[in-house]
Design a protein that fits this description.
The chain is α+β, with helices and mostly antiparallel strands. Helices cover 33% and strands 17% of the residues. It contains three helices and five strands, in the order H-E-H-H-E-E-E-E.
Length: 109
């Protein structure tokens, strides 16, 4: 029996990375939305996103990351994405805990 290939990468027979790639090629998704859709922990989702970013380069794609920002004062967390892909717990500028999640999208180069 041959398996029909799902070009979008979303389906029950697909790996988590293939599902994630298919989702991110279609639309920009926030970190917590991806966690809910894929059923992963924060650490597991970060690991998978880093792997998807590495393998995207070999396919001629790039992972675009919209950094998190504080909803209270607007402080952007631009330098954070090199270390962490999830939102911090609180803003260093105003101490608010209302932080917008980072969002991700796969784009062709």
């Amino acid at each position: 029996m041959s398996r029909r290939r799902d070009p979008e990468g979303v389906g029950a027979a697909r790996t988590v990375r293939q599902q994630m790639r298919g989702l991110l090629l279609r639309e920009e998704l926030a970190f917590d939305t991806l966690r809910a859709l894929l059923g992963l922990s924060v650490r597991d989702l970060e690991d998978e996103l880093l792997h998807v970013a590495r393998s995207a380069r070999s396919r001629g794609e790039r992972l675009v990351v919209s950094p998190p920002s504080c909803l209270a004062c607007g402080h952007p967390f631009r330098d954070r994405e090199s270390r962490h892909l999830h939102a911090p717990g609180r803003c260093p500028a105003c101490r608010s805990e209302r932080i917008r999640d980072p969002s991700f999208r796969l784009l062709p180069r």
